[in-house]
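Data availability (excerpt). The following record was deposited with the supplementary files.
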Amino acid sequence: MTSPSRSGRPRASSRETLAEAACELFLEQGYESTSVLDITTRAGVSRSSFFNYFASKADILWATFDERLEAVLTALADTADPRGVLVALAADFEPDTLALGITQATAMGISDELERERAVRQGRLAQSIAARLRAGGADGLFADVGGASLSGALFAAIWRWAQDGAGRTDLRPILERALRAVAATSPELRAPG
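Predicted structure:
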């Protein structure tokens, strides 16, 4: 729990302070030119504090999303409805460093890094969905294509949501539209019931 500052508002956590400092620096001098030392100096914390929260600079952009992704991967093991798990992820999705990175990728110089990191996470989610579909009786090819399609729908929706002005609209209706697109091309992937 954070302690109140003199103005009566809670101080931001070191994690939030680091993320804010990093995003400012990425915008000012670019991702590649920004070191962990630059970030910790701007944030007023030690280098070891940085590594208490993040494994790398890239993790700053993805930290909140990664927490949600871990919850999704866990939930997928216990459900027959991967679509429902994805829709649940979209609930209360708030603008964060990832949304800022998506919209400011060119200015921050992170376009390639963002795409690489997106591909890793999208592939990981696709594999988990495919495993869930196989466990539900789907054959291997269908499960792999279904996993890739549903994972692709989620990431396409997040990118669209950020580009349309994250915070001005909810992610859920955009994700539901993306999932309808998957269902239109693959009726077997429609929601159960």
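Summary of structural features: The CA atoms of residues 25 and 64 lie 19 Å apart.
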